[in-house]
Amino acid sequence: MSQIKLIIPYFAEVTKTFPMLHIKLFTFNPFQENTYLIYDESKEATLIDPGCFTHAEKRELEDFILSENLKVTQLLNTHCHIDHVLGNAWAIKKFGIPLQIHPNETSVLKSVEVYAPNYGFQGYESTEAEKYLEEGQEIWVGKEKLSVIFVPGHSPGHVVFYHAESKQCIAGDTLFKGSIGRTDLPGGNHNLLLNKIKNQLFALPDETVVYPGHGPETTIGFEKIYNPFVGERAFH
Predict the structure, then answer these.
(1) Number of domains in the chain
(2) CATH number (domain holding residue 140)
(3) Taking Cα atoms as reference points, which of 6, 3, 36, 8 lies closest to residue 22?
(4) What's the gap between Cα 177 and its chain centre?
(5) What is the pTM of this model?
(6) Which one of 92, 176, 205, 219 has the lowest number of neighbouring Cβ atoms within 10 Å?
(7) Where is the Metallo-beta-lactamase domain (predicted)?
């Protein structure tokens, strides 16, 4: 019996569990934009870049929230191009939460109401941010901490959200699998984006999973080698 007593505490220590950050992906609107709902075991959730516009898309998101018994407490935009903000007004009203963006995205968000009809989004509702994100800021999703990384270039106030414990980041339109965000839109800066990816995102661990604003996930390690714009093989 004395041997069992010695084994049990050691076994309990090595099998310790850690909090988890869950990331749920939805793909919405004709731009095939990736909307993310992130939450932890406390069931507190943060909605990032809601691209839902049709009733069916909003219902899909709402049904998942209800099925998982989640409480949405935050609304964040990585940046404010039309495909990433179509569901902002709906989310603000539905969940009673304030919108948070980087201050450099204010004019980008404001401009959406001007050109939305040209893209066929009749009835788009404009929104304004109530809170502003800063580089290095910490954001809590329940008991899980995200860091705000400032990565402009695709847009002037683009931010990325990084969860260090699980090595996961919501990257918006900065870094894609085998590509980078376009820089030919107003406020874009190609050289700045390349620099920020290399010095900010590539400073993250190689095993970091990147969840982009469009397309499949990737990893920092893969893109450091194979990305044709910023990877090592792009210069050989």
Answers:
(1) 1
(2) 3.60.15.10
(3) 36
(4) 15
(5) 0.91
(6) 205
(7) 32-214
